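Database export, one record per block. Field names are fixed; values are copied verbatim from the stored entry.
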Amino acid sequence: MPELSHRRRMLVLAICCMSLLIVSLDNTALNVALPSMQRELHATTSGLQWAIDAYTLVLASLLMLAGSTADRIGRKRVFMAGLVIFTAGSLLCSLAPNLELLVVFRMVQAVGGSMLNPVAMSIITNTFTDPRERARAIGAWGAVVGISMAAGPLAGGLLVESVGWRSIFWVNLPVGLAALLLTLRFVPESRAPRPRRPDPVGQVLVIALFGSLTYAIIEAPDASLARVLPFAAVAVAALLALLIYEPRRAEPLIDLRFFHSAPFSGATGIAVSAFAALGGFLFLSTLYLQNVRGLDALHAGLWMLPMAVPTLLCAPLSGRLVGSRGPRLPLLIAGAAMTVSGLLFALFEAETSDVTLFLGYVLFGIGFGFVNAPITNTAVSGMPRAQAGVAAAVASTSRQLGQTLGVAVIGAVLAAGIGSSPYRDTFVSAARPGWWILAACGAAVLILGLLTSGRWAHRTAERTAERLETAEVRQPVGTSG
């Protein structure tokens, strides 16, 4: 990629952030619409889980393929294709006549979404080559998540109350079209110096692992053991096959050598934990505010602002801290805040009082605001630039997998606790195990942040990068294991 002027780099960053905005806004706004969708489409709790997880599951399954494909055939080309598919999928979602087709169209959306975030991050990584400037750019990128969290519930509530839940998907249409036209005009094409070959076997194994695991978790409360156990067995078999098959390939879909780097492994675990907490937190909060407190979608969206605004304010601060002092401090703040938030709900039933509910939301927003920038920066900064797309895709996959598992696990726990009882009667007690799980996710962020941000961890990252660069030089173009 040629060196761009400062103004052009800022424009490229803005265009990439537009893609993140529509993907993130769609998810946060849709959470507020869940009760309305439940009533109109006659959906069960597991049906609502699938409305969320169908998107994140497909996204998680295809992100690594999209990242490596973009590195191979061109990041701009794949990014534009993703914008077209995501926008078309959004239109189809707005027209879905039933829950089953909505889930299918959400999967279409996800195919396009898989080509956006990791590819956009790869574009940013290759556009901003100075580490400090890159950290600030990633902080701005993370701030978009805060914007979506702040605007999503409120905008979603307004749309649901005034027009209906289908209008949430309409927002993506003009933004997607504008991003497409701006990308065509201003984003330069880039690709990895040495193209990587596809890994269809690895891709099938990833889909089998993620899909069967998610199905087993979501359906466990209502399905028999004989129905769930085969899917759990498939997930275990797919995981073992990946661990055996991928190291034998010269150009694997998942380069397991990345995980020799302690910071990269830590960033992956932190991403899964933090986004599992996010997915579960939004799922529980939305159902509680509307189905238990009886708020309409707009007022439920307003109640989400104490969580969203701190995320918006803390994300750019986290990016600056990562650039100036490294990832440890932001990760410690994030882990501590998310843990305390979960404990407030698990131990003190924070949702039953306005004051503690507000405090719990603020603490979670602070924690989530600080966690995103160190995840992304750590995942890509220690890797060769030629593999930036793959590394960024692994980090993005970890986020989506975490959110998928968060909704699946927390939803399954909630469904098992409520059973056939009304939400109002049993929600607080049924949700308590879920809040303990969210507190454990926060503790995992804290512990992993401590363990993987020290000097010894950075030495493992340096050694891993050296080995990867040496392997890239020795590996003939186009060879495959």
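Remark 1: The first helix runs from residue 6 to 32.
Remark 2: The two ends are 29 Å apart (CA to CA).
End of record.
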